[in-house]
TrEMBL record:
Gene3D superfamilies per record: Laminin (2.10.25.10), von Willebrand factor, type A domain (3.40.50.410)
Record bears the keyword S-adenosyl-L-methionine: no
Name under which the protein is recorded: Cartilage matrix protein
Keywords of this entry: Disulfide bond, Signal
Signal peptide: 1-46
Amino acid sequence: MAQEKGVPLQLAVRVAPTMKVTSGPALALCSLRLLLLLLQVPDCLGLVPQPRGHLCRTRPTDLVFVVDSSRSVRPVEFEKVKVFLSQVIESLDVGPNATRVGLVNYASTVKPEFPLRAHGSKAALLQAVRRIQPLSTGTMTGLALQFAITKALSDAEGGRARSPDISKVVIVVTDGRPQDSVRDVSERARASGIELFAIGVGRVDKATLRQIASEPQDEHVDYVESYNVIEKLAKKFQEAFCVVSDLCATGDHDCEQVCISSPGSYTCACHEGFTLNSDGKTCNVCHRGGGGSATDLVFLIDGSKSVRPENFELVKKFINQIVDTLDVSDRLAQVGLVQYSSSVRQEFPLGRFHTKKDIKAAVRNMSYMEKGTMTGPGAQKVGIVFTDGRSQDYINDAARKAKDLGFRMFAVGVGNAVEDELREIASEPVADHYFYTADFKTINQIGKKLQKKICVGITETKTMKMNLTAC
């Protein structure tokens, strides 16, 4: 599809006087520094778990928790772990023919708190969890895993014979570096069909978590900054153990508009006038012609120390979700990435990578700057500002200048964002260009709204009439 005057939608600008991110002669460089700010925000797992509907059932599982209670875990923190365990158990169908739960407590030694055969009801399990006390010595994670695999899941302890209908699962919770090896015992467990989840807290050795966990590791490794927020992982495990007959009816799907159910699965569709994007989930309000349009997209990522390492990892995953929706090639979408804090660092320019795979790998390998924050001047044609706090420099003047130059500015505030600043950034009418959410997990829904608004704006602008592949 030919674009008017061959002009692509430009989403890249100069980021510093000595460093430019360019996208060809069609891009008019201006004095504004930032185009797209993705500022990370408070813990993205901070939503209260929602009811999953009566069709959600957990498949029969032999589940063993392996819980670190070494000296680094304070008593009040261990109580937080017990709350997390209780919340996961609450979501299970507990019974001799359903899910059986055992628990192994460890430090320098291993203490089996209760075996799989001990409690046949949810109430009895919850009471048993409340009675557990920390051991307060060293950290022998490998020894505890060995015990869980060879003893806790054995027939003598209540483990059932291996069957495609019964899952064998071990969930490890730890906050330190083990004093023994976990690699070999974890490999044997995975080879025997046991699914391993690893939850790390605080200063845990993340390499250890990866050695323990099953593949894919994105689904089997979790990290939280402190025990104060470990309870928020309960929802993830409630979903992991849930088996439903109608995923659409329970809302357990990623369809943006229409979900069509099939036994144990679903497909997505769109309302009339919309087309399904290549991700098979989201819908496009733009009318597609003979092909996608050129899109130059540069992400500017906050690498300041307020973001925190675990949240920075979540931002990288979010970026790659957006990259997945693009038609990446020399002719269509090109992606660049810049990280900033009190200084600016170009991670990779537009055009360096020509495939989604290479872009996503570069994003995953990006290191965290962890310095102060300086947000400032803005965008070419479309600007989207994501922020979770007050800027340390004069972003309002930059946003006003951007709007005077004809840029359409969207403002998204999260957590502790200053609403007056966001309203100053947003174009008129402010109600259509200003968004706020308390939790990062809902940012995907805001992203969908932004895609539609940007897309509609393009199709309505005579001088920029084109398709936007990312819409």
